[in-house]
Amino acid sequence: MGIFNGLPVPSDKTYLREELARIDESWAAARFDSLPHVVHILTSKDREGDIHVLREQSDVVEEVVDEVVHAYHGGFNKAIQNYSQILRLFSESTDKIGDLKHDLAEAKQSLGARNKQLHQLWYRSVTLRHIISLLDQIEGIAKVPSRIEKLIADKQFYAAIQVYLQSSLMLEREGLQTVGALQDVRSELTKLRGALFFKILDDLHAHLYNRGEYSSVASSINERDDEVPTTTAVAASQMSSQPLSRRTRTLKGDSQFGARGLTNGSYRTASNDEGSSFDGHDEEDSVEHDEATTDTVRNGTDSKLLSYQLPPWLSDSTPDEFIEAVRKSDDPLHVKYLQTLVQCLCMLGKVAAAGAIICQKLRPTIHEIIVSKIKAHMETTNLSKSAGSQGDRTLAAGLHFMKGQSEAYRLSKEKPQNGISNSGTHLAVSPVSPLMAPGGKAQAAAKELLDSILDTIVKIFENHVVIGELLELKASQHDINTPKSLPTDVNWNTDSEASQVTGGYTISFPLTVLQSECQQLICEILRATPEAASADAAAQTAKHAKKSSKKDKRDAPEDGLTFTFRFTDATVSISNQGADLIRQGWGRRAPNASQEGYGSAAVLPEQGIYLAASIYRPVLQFTDKITSMLPKKHSQLVNDGLLTFTENFVKDHLLPTMFVDYRKGVQQAISSPAAFRPRAHTTTTYTPTVEKGRPILQGLLAIDLLAKEVLGWAQAMPKFATDLVKYVQTFLERTFERCRASYTEAVLEKQSYMLIGRHDIEKLMRVEAASACLPSSLGHAVSHSESVGIEVELSKIFLTLPTTIKQENLIRDDNKLILLASLSDSLEYVADSIERLGQAVPCAASQAEGNSKNQAASPRNLASFADEYRKLATDCLKNLRVEMQLETVFHFQEMTNREYLEDEDAEEPDDYVISLTSQITRRDEGMAPFISGEKRNYVFGGICGVAAHASIKALADMRSINLFGVQQICRNTIALEQAMAAIPYIDGESVQQNLDRVRTYFELLNMPFEALLAFIAEHDQMFTPTEYSNLLKVNVPGRDTPPDAQSRLLEILSH
C-alpha cells in the first residue's frame, strides 16, 4: 500500500512495510464498504483461512499504528502544552486590557478637571527651557576655542571649521551680541581662524607634494612603482559646464556637491534656531569608524576606503551633505583628503590667499624635491656599490634596445681569441665613450634618474590637478573668498576672474612650473646652458621676448648650447590678503628663488648632449601621463611643453651633431691604411663568430659598430628614427663605395674580372650547383646531370678563350686573393648585421620615409643595402673561383704541342702540376682563416673539372705519347687529387670522379685497336665522339692503327 510508505517504521521492522504492501488498496479507501468483504468470507470455501489472513493483516496494522504513536507521542504532548499556554496568555491579556481601559478613563477625568493649570505650567516650562538653552549655549561658546584647538591638534580640520562657523553664527544671534563675556571669545575665534588657515595650508602643502599622512605615496606602498593613476576628462553634470576628471567626478555625481555642501558655498549647520548640540552624531559610532579606518590606512592593504565608510579625518565632524558625498565616493583616500582641505579653505573664505602662497612656494619646493631625489638616488647607488652588488651588472636593462645592440658593445670590450681587440677600433671611430653609447651606463643611469624624478613629478601634478579642478569649479559657481557664515549670492566668473579668485592658481600654473624645473634639470644633464634660467618669472618672460627674435638655436656652439625656454611661469597676481599672509611668515620659510643647480653630475657617470637619447623616452611617457590627467579644457597646455622642447633640442642640436660626429668616424674608419688590410697572425681555421676571432676587416667592423650605435639611437628615439636611418644609409653607401674601390683595385684588368662580367658566364655560374653557398644565391636547384653539363660548358668556355692565358692576366699576388676572401666574408657579415638591424628599426621610420613628400621615388631601405653588400661579397667569391680555374688552365697549357715519350716510370709529377698544387696549397692556407669551409669548397672546387677537361682536350694537340707518358699523366692527376684532398670541406667524390675520368681516358691509349673498339662499343656515352676520335689520332708507339680506324669508329658510334 503506497499510501503508507512515509510512515516512521524502524529499520529493524522493515518487514512491516512488506506486509502493508500486501494489504489491498480497498481497505484504505476514504469511504470503506465492508459488505463486499463479508460476502467474500461467507461465500469462501476456506472461511477460517480468510479470517486468519484478515487477523494477521489486522495485527500488522495495529503494530504499525503502535510505531506511529510511539514516534509522534512527544510531539503530540508538546502541541497540547503549547495550546494550553496560548489560552492562558490570551486570558491574562484580556484582564490587563480591561484594567488599562479603567485607568485611562480615570486619567481623562482628572485632566479635564485641571486643564488651565496644566497649560500655565507647560508655558512656564518652555520659557525656562529656552533660558536654560541660552545659558548652555553661552557656556558651550565659551569652551569653543579650547575645543577648536583640540580638533586642530587632532587634525580634525573640517570639524574645527564646523565648530567655528556654528559659533560665529551663534554669536551673531540676537540676545548674544550684547553679552560682554563673549567679546573675548569673539577675539579668540578671530585668531583661531588665522591659525586654522595656516594649519590647513601646511597640511595641504604637504599633501600636494606627497609628504602628508594620507598622500598617495604613503597609501600605495604595495602598488607597483610605475603605476601612476591617470585621469580622464568627462562632461560635467547639469550644474556645471566645465569638464572634470575622475577625481572630482564622483563627488559631483553623488551629491552634485549637495547644492549646499560644495557647489553654492552656503554652508548649512546642523543646529536649528532653538539651538542644538555641536555633536549631532553618535560618538560610539564615530569611534568605531575612526578605528576601522585607521587600521585600513595603517595596514596599507588598500588605497581606497570601503564604500560608505567615513574617513578618519571626518570622524569628529557633524554629518552634512559634503560628508555624505565623501562617504559615498569611490575616490582614493588622498583625493578625498585633498577635497576636504579645499572645502575647508572655501568655508574659511581663504582660497585666494592659499592659492597665492601655493604659487609662491611651488618652484622652490619642486627644486628641493628634485635635489633631494637626486641625493637619495646617489645614496642608494653608493650603498649598492659598497655592498658589491654592482659587479658586472649592467644598468641598461631599462633601455629597450635591440638584442644585437648589447652584443655589439660587448664585442667592443672583449678580446677575441685571435689576440686582436675590437675595443681599440670602437674607441677610435665612435664619437662617444662606451658609457655614453646606447645601452651604456651613463645612458641607463640618466634614464633611471629621470624616470624616478618624472614619476615623482607626475604624482605631484596629479594632486595639483585635483586641487585645480576643484578651485576652478567653485570659482565658476560662487564666491569662495567670503566666509560661509555670511550670506552670499551666486557669482558666475570668467576664466580671468577665476584666476584672480584663486590667487593666480590654476592647473596651467603648476604644469608650467613643473615642466620648467624639469627642463632646467634636463639642461644640466645635457650640459646645455639655458638662457633666462632665473626663477623670476617676469624677468624671464621679458628676457625671452627680447632675445627670442634674435636668437637662432642652430647657431649655438657645440660645447655650450644656448637656447631659451619655450614656456615661462605665468605672472602671479597676488591679492592684498595673500601678500599680507606671505609677509606674516609663511613665505619666509621658502628657500631662495635663485637656484644653484641640482647636483645630477654626482649621480651620472658622464654628462653631455648624447644623453638626450635616454631622456627622450621618459619625457614622452611623462607627457602622455600628464596629458591623460588634464581635462579636455586644458589639454592644449602640453602642446608647447617639455616634450616640444626635448624634440626641438634633438632635432636642432643632437641630430646635426650626431651626423657630423659619426660621419667623421665613418671617414676615419674607411680611410685608415689598415681598414682594408687582412689581419695578420689570425687563427689557422675559420671561426663564424667575432667573439671567437672571426677576422672581419677593421674598417667594416668599425662601420658595423657605428651603424649599430646610430640605430641604437633610433631605437631610443623612434620619432627621429627616419633621420637616423638616413644617416646609416649614407654611411653604408659611402662604405660600399670604398669596398667597391678596394675590390676593383684588386681585380682591375684581370681575366677573371672580365669573365664574370660576361652575361653567358654569369648566367651559368648563377645556376651552378656549387653557387648554393653564395651569400646572394639567386639560382635554382639543378639535378646532378644538369650540374655536370653546366660544369662542362663553363670548362669549354675557359678552354676556348680567343687568346692564350698569360701570366699578367692573372692575379699573381696572393695577398690580393686573401683580401678578396676577407672582403667577401666581411661584406657578408655586415650584410647580415644590416638585415637584422633593419628588422629592429621602428616601423615609424619606414612609414615616415614612405610618406616623405620630398622624395620623388621610394627611398631605399636597409635591406637593399644588405643585398648590395651580399652581391659584392658574391662577386669576390666568383672572382676567386674563376681565378683558380684560369690558373688551372694556365698551367695545363703546357700539355699541348708536346710529346709524352718517357723512358722510365713516373715518380714525380710534371713541373707545371707541382707549381699548380703548391699554389693551391699556399692559397688555401692563406684563405682558410677568412672564409668558411663551404666557400673554400666553392673557390677551389672548380679546379678539378677544368683540369680534367683540359687534360682530355690536350690529347688532340699532342704529337706522341707512350706507355710511360700515360703513367706520367696519371701521376699528375694523383698529385692534383692529393692536393685537393688536403683542403677541408672539399667535395672529394667530385674530385675523384673528374680525375678518374682523366685516368680512364688516357689508359685507353694502352689498349690495342680492337680492344679499344670493343670498349667504345660498350661505353659509347662515357666520352664524346671527338674525344674517342682523338684517341685514334694521337701517335702511340707500338699500337697498330688501321687506315680505316676513323670510319670504323664512326660506324660504332652511329649505332
Automatic annotation (TrEMBL):
Biased composition (Polar residues): 229-245, 263-275
One biological process term in Gene Ontology: vesicle tethering involved in exocytosis
Pfam families the UniProt entry points to: Sec8_N
Alphabetical keyword list: Exocytosis, Protein transport, Transport
Source domain of life: Eukaryota
GO CC annotation, single: exocyst
Keyword Protein transport assigned: yes
Signal peptide as annotated in the record: none
InterPro entries hit by this protein: Sec8/EXOC4, Sec8_exocyst_N
Annotated region described as Disordered, given as residue ranges: 221-298, 537-557
Residues of the Exocyst complex component Sec8 N-terminal domain: 16-151
Function: Component of the exocyst complex involved in the docking of exocytic vesicles with fusion sites on the plasma membrane.
Family statement: Belongs to the SEC8 family.
Protein name in UniProt: Exocyst complex component Sec8
Species annotation: Cardamine amara subsp. amara
